[in-house]
Amino acid sequence: MILADKIIRMRKRNGWSQEELAEKMGVSRQAVSKWESAQTVPDLEKILQLGNLFGVTTDYLLKDELEEEEYDDGAEDTALRCVTLTQANDFLAWRQTAAAIIAGGVLLCVTAVLPLLWLLALSQEPGSGVPESVAVGAGLCALLLMVTAAVALFIFCGMKNTPYAFLDQEIFRTEYGVRGMVRQRQKSYWNTYVICSILGVCLCVLSPVPLLMGALTQQELLVMKLLCLTILLAGMGAALLVLTGVRWASMQKLLQEGEYSPREKEHSHLIETIAAVYWMAAVAIYLGWSFATNRWDITWLVWPVAGILFGIIQPLCRMWAMKRN
User: Fold this and answer.
1) Where do the structural domains in the chain lie, given as residue ranges?
2) How many other CB atoms sit within 10 Å of the CB of residue 52?
3) Calpha distance 14→9 (Å, rounded)
């Protein structure tokens, strides 16, 4: 069996297309096509990479008389990790649960200021009997409790996701049948993903409408209540996007597509570091501005502005990382 046939055999055994193998090898699809049609032969470096990728010896790839695979037992540390069908199913089941937990945490973070705003509005109502100082104190306590609960949920998900962290960071191979199973789930989930994503975006875009309507009136109490509705709608939209996005991302991770492709993973560490610093700075600005001015009804604008800016910064960082490499 010649090298071309062996490449075809091993590629199909892993469930990869020519495009996917090309991406993992860092070459064009046309190069893989030429290898498999025996028009060209990979150079020595690429043959070593193929052996490493498939977990077989270079002798097996180069010697035509060797028909059966010779797996490289001495290179277990360098061979790509293999994701089994059981692992893939367990990961997808966990991420479905994690999606709901993370979405709940996001909703808690976005709406944490609502008790404070609502109590402030209540303290301004004639005859409510709630002093403003009490409303502020109780509202801040509720805010801290909600943020603490959200952080606890995020930490829990992070710890439970530890066994699957390599899916974000490493290039791996999948057992036969994994890609087909994930493709089928992705196809079944597509309509739900599209509908929920559209609904989530619409809620976020339309969330300022109540606040804009409140700007037309001079009633301070009504404006405060409409602001609460604005924040609630924005939180629901963000939570819905996270709920569907986490599940979709889990499938992309197993397929190593989109931002989880091998090429993107090379830049992920830099982007994650920048993102962590960015959002820590956003939290510091939000809390500093809020406590310094005590204008919690305005400082929440930090989050939509930060989200828009991050959407611009992230692709710029990715482009810079690619250019640097």
Assistant:
1) 3-75, 86-258, 261-325
2) 15
3) 9
pLDDT by residue (tens digit) across 163-186? Answer: 998 888 777 878 778 888 999 999
Give the pair of three-digit tokens for residue 35. 């290898």
Measured CA to CA, the distance from residue 21 to residue 10 in angstroms comes to 10
Backbone conformation region of residue 126, classed left if phi is above 0, alpha if psi is from -120 to 50, else beta: beta
- Identify whether the C-beta of residue 285 lies closer than 8 Å to the C-beta of residue 303: no
Q: What is the pLDDT of residues 135-155, one digit of tens each?
A: 888 988 998 999 999 999 999
Could you tell me the two tokens for 15?
Answer: 């469930």
The answer to whether 114 and 228 have CB atoms below 8 angstroms apart is yes
Report how far apart, in Å, the C-alpha atoms of 31 and of each of 18, 35, 80 are. Answer: 9, 6, 22
Q: How far apart are the C-alpha atoms of 150 and 102, rounded to whole Å?
A: 8
pTM, 2 dp: 0.65
Q: How far apart are CA 167 and CA 182, in angstroms?
A: 14
What SS3 state is found at 174?
strand
Q: Which CATH number fits domain 3-75: 3.20.20.30, 1.10.260.40, 3.40.50.150, 3.30.200.20?
A: 1.10.260.40
